[in-house]
Amino acid sequence: MFSDFNGEKEAKHNSKKKRIIIGIIVAVLLIGIVLGVFLFKVLRKKNTPDKKVKDRPDLQVMLLEPNPYSRPQIPLVKVNGIVIHYTANPGATAKQNRDYFNGLKDSKKTKASSHFIVGLDGEIVQCIPCKEISYASNSRNKDTISIECCIEDNTGKFNKKTYDSVVELTAWLVGRYNLSCDDIIRHYDVTGKLCPKYYVQHPSAWKQFKKDVQDYIDKHGVKNTK
Predict the structure, then answer these.
(1) Which bin fits 91, alpha (ψ -120 to 50), beta or left (φ > 0)?
(2) Which of 129, 199, 206, 226 is buried most deeply by CB count within 10 Å?
């Protein structure tokens, strides 16, 4: 009978101990969740620019015809970056590059396209809606907006009109998707491809480009409330 009493007492003790351990585990998990949410908000706020450009630049909407080679109409669910490219065909216009992408539905030579093409006169042509992927940035097609830039010669350097329009377009897209200038990358940064050529071969020029985008946001942006 004394043994039964001790056994019952030990069982109650073990049950109480188990409840305490479970309580500690639950508390630790809750603290972890709270800290995780807090850190997420802090980091998000840190990476979110203070200003955003709200006014869309002038552009010509010339969407590609839906097809498996250049406009597959696959949804672009989340935009995490802006990728800068160059066309690698000196002298070709934005319209000519757009027509090349559109013609892939017939030629079936390859899969290629871009959301936007910026021409030699600074004109901006939109080829694909921003809610769809383009075939431009390999593994980052799924979460980036692509910008192709026309060039005058084999150096791959953007002329002033092209450069200024790319800066404006990129600044607007950064604000539209609540990104920061750290989210602007080159095709080179995804695959190691020499694209955009001049801005791979001249890292200081690429650094200046990103600075110019930030300066544009600082000058023309409004307070970012998100």
Answers:
(1) left
(2) 199
